Structure formats: C-alpha cells, structure tokens
C-alpha cells in the first residue's frame, strides 16, 4: 500500500502533493487542512471533538474558533 495516497469516500488524496480529486475535480488543500483530513480519516466511525482536533492538529497552540472552521482548500482547474 502506498502511504502517500489516502482514499476518502470517492476522493483520492495525494498526501505529498496536498491535492485531492475525484477524477475531473481536484482541489489543493492548505497544509493544516490536510492534517485535519488525515486526522479525521484516521478515526473512522468516531465522533471527534473540536477539543481533540485542536489538541492533535494544532498541538497545543492557541487556536481561535475560526481557525478550525476556516481551514480550507482551493479548487484547481484541469
């Protein structure tokens, strides 16, 4: 298994490139957004609290409420 690729639903996530796509659509994720995705994907069938997400992804940094909700990616044209 290739550790640089993760499948989430119908999306293929290239961890090294920071890109995810489902064929014709692709998006580049900010590094923090990729960390959030990888963390959530590592906890299938588990409800992850905001506190746990902040602790594990932001690793103790002071995090404003919008930091989690504004973590995003950008659509890439093919």
The Cα radius of gyration reads: 13 Å
Largest sheet: 5 strands, antiparallel
Into which percentage range does the β-strand content fall?
A: 15-25%
Overall shape: it is globular
Give helix and strand order, one letter per element, not per position: EEEEHHHE
Number of helices: 3
Please report the first level of CATH classification, the CATH class. Mainly Alpha
**Overall strand count:** 5
Q: What is the CATH topology classification name?
A: Arc Repressor Mutant, subunit A
Q: What would the average pLDDT be, to the nearest integer?
A: 82
Helix content: 25-40%
Distance between the termini: 27 Å
Write the CATH homologous superfamily.
Winged helix-like DNA-binding domain superfamily/Winged helix DNA-binding domain
- Helix-strand makeup class: alpha+beta
Quickly count the domains. Answer: 1
Q: Which spans of ≥5 residues are poorly predicted at pLDDT below 50?
A: none
Q: Mind telling me which CATH architecture this is? A: Orthogonal Bundle
In spatial order, strands of the major sheet run 1-2-3-4-5
């Amino acid at each position: 298994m290739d550790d640089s690729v993760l499948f989430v639903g119908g999306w293929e996530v290239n961890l090294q490139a920071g890109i995810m796509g489902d064929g014709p659509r692709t998006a580049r994720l900010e590094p923090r957004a990729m960390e959030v995705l990888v963390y959530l994907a590592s906890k299938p069938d588990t409800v992850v609290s905001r506190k746990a997400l902040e602790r594990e992804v932001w690793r103790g940094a002071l995090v404003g409420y919008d930091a989690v909700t504004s973590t995003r990616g950008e659509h890439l044209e093919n």
